[in-house]
Amino acid sequence: MRIATTITSALYLLTPLTLAAPISQINTRSGERLYIGNLAHQISASTLKELFGRFGHVVHVSSISSHGSAFVTMGTAADAEDAVRDLDGRVIDGKRIRVELTSS
C-alpha cells in the first residue's frame, strides 16, 4: 500500500499547473512597464520608486544597470502614461532622463 501512495503522490506532482493568465501578462502587462534611460550613476532604486510614486503605485523597480538604465513597473497604464508625459526629458541629478513605455 505504501508504494501505491508514493506513486500516486509522484503523479500528482507531474500534473501541469493551470495559470489564470498567460505568463507574458504576469507582473508586466503592456503599457505599465517603463524604460528609464540616461540615469545618473548615483541614483538609487528607492529614489526612482519615490520619483515615480508621485504618479501612482510603483509595483517594481529593477536594479539600475551600469549603463544608467532601469525598468519601473507602474500599477496602471494611466499612471505609466502620466509618468512618461511628466518625466521624459526632465533633468534629474544633472542628466536629462528618457522615460518610455515598453512593449512588454
UniProtKB/TrEMBL annotation:
Record domain RRM: where: 32-104
One GO biological process term: mRNA processing
CC per GO annotation: cytoplasm; nucleus
PANTHER family assigned: RNA RECOGNITION MOTIF RRM DOMAIN CONTAINING PROTEIN, SERINE_ARGININE (SR)-TYPE SHUTTLING MRNA BINDING PROTEIN NPL3
Claim: Transferase is one of the keywords in the record: no
Protein name: RRM domain-containing protein
Species for this entry: Cudoniella acicularis
Keywords: mRNA processing, Nucleus, Repeat, RNA-binding, Signal
Matching Pfam families: RRM_1 (PF00076)
Superkingdom, natural source: Eukaryota
CDD domains: RRM_SF (cd00590)
